[in-house]
Amino acid sequence: MAFLKLDQLPDFSWKYAKNRWADFVELICIDNIDKEVSLNDIMNIYVNENFFSTADDESPSEKDNKYFLLFSETFLLIKSRSQLLKKYYPFEFVNKSTIKMSLLTNDNLLYIYLLLSSNTSCLEGSLASKFTNSFEGFSQRIMGYLYPTFQSYLFGTSRTRGDLFYGGTLRDRLDRLSKCLNTNLRKNETINRHNDEFSGDRKIDVVAFYQIDCESYNAPFIPVSIGQCSCSYEEWEDKQSSVFNRRFKNMFEEVATCHEYMFIPFSLRGINGKWASDDISSIQTIVIDRFRFFSILDLSKISADVIITDEIKDCLKNALEQLYAAFQ
């Protein structure tokens, strides 16, 4: 039973959205009854059925050649994903232009989780918000692996009862964070009326810090890292500014220069595994993309069994329905 909204071809740019097109092909494979998709399938369903708008002077044969070439390039990018991500990649090649879903392991399910988190517009109902909320928690745990001696916490809207920064007004939570950093809120923050609200996070999703002083002589300027999460291919570039040091230093009186992180569930890689040439100019922070999530797990010797929480399992179970249950 189809569960993804893939009945129309998206209007992604071919020049600047190659990773989005690769995701799209992978999603079709998941959604198909036989869990397989080929280049010919895509041509027959989307091109020959006139899902594409064409120029008035473009003949049918020119249109076919144009999109056959473009989808062929997409399969080459998918091939590179398979070769580079190895055990995490949930699809295998039947031939150079056909992929099918593998027998799923937890490593593969983690990839599918990030794939679906990257494409929440394809999900039905309330599933989209479940994936975006769980992705914040996933990113917070990854921050913890990056800084094993730090305390890492959710500060964003997905925090839950029992979390350090759960409860109170935004000012209460910011003040709580200032105490963790051995400093104070700036005066402009103490009088800011927006901080009287119980919602909001000042665009800080994840924070990590290291209390390097003893309690009897603690002092400010301790090591700090802050992170923003985005499940949107369109919004991640602009969201980077929310974790720039100048914003953070405008909120707190005495803080050291922070490490600025952007967590995204999608890939920004080209066919060689390096940053894609059209994306690298947009990177202004330490970007943790789909590839880096897997690298961090490997370097930290953390298995997918550990990082896949009940919340992630619930997201996958709701999204994949019978497919997910079949591999339990």
Supply database-style keywords:
alpha/beta; 5-stranded mixed beta sheet; 14 helices; disordered C terminus
Briefly, what is this?
The chain is an alpha/beta fold and 328 residues long. 43% of the residues lie in helices and 10% in strands. A hairpin with a 2-residue loop joins strand 2 and strand 3.
How would you describe this protein?
There is one protein chain. The radius of gyration is 22 Å and the shape is elongated. The strands form two sheets. The chain has a five-stranded mixed sheet. Mean pLDDT is 88; it is low at 324-328. The longest helix is centred in the N-terminal third of the chain and has 26 residues, at 60-85. The relative contact order is 0.13. The protein folds into two domains: 18-122, no CATH class; 127-306, no CATH class. It has helices at 18-31, 39-47, 60-85, 106-118, 127-146, 170-180, 187-190, 236-239, 245-251, 277-280, 290-299, 304-307, 310-320, 322-326; strands at 36-38, 91-95, 98-101, 151-154, 206-209, 224-229, 259-263, 286-288. With 328 residues, the chain is α/β, with parallel strands linked by helices. Helices cover 43% and strands 10% of the residues. Helix 2 packs across helix 3 (60-85), helix 4 packs across helix 5 and helix 5 (127-146) runs antiparallel to helix 13 (310-320).
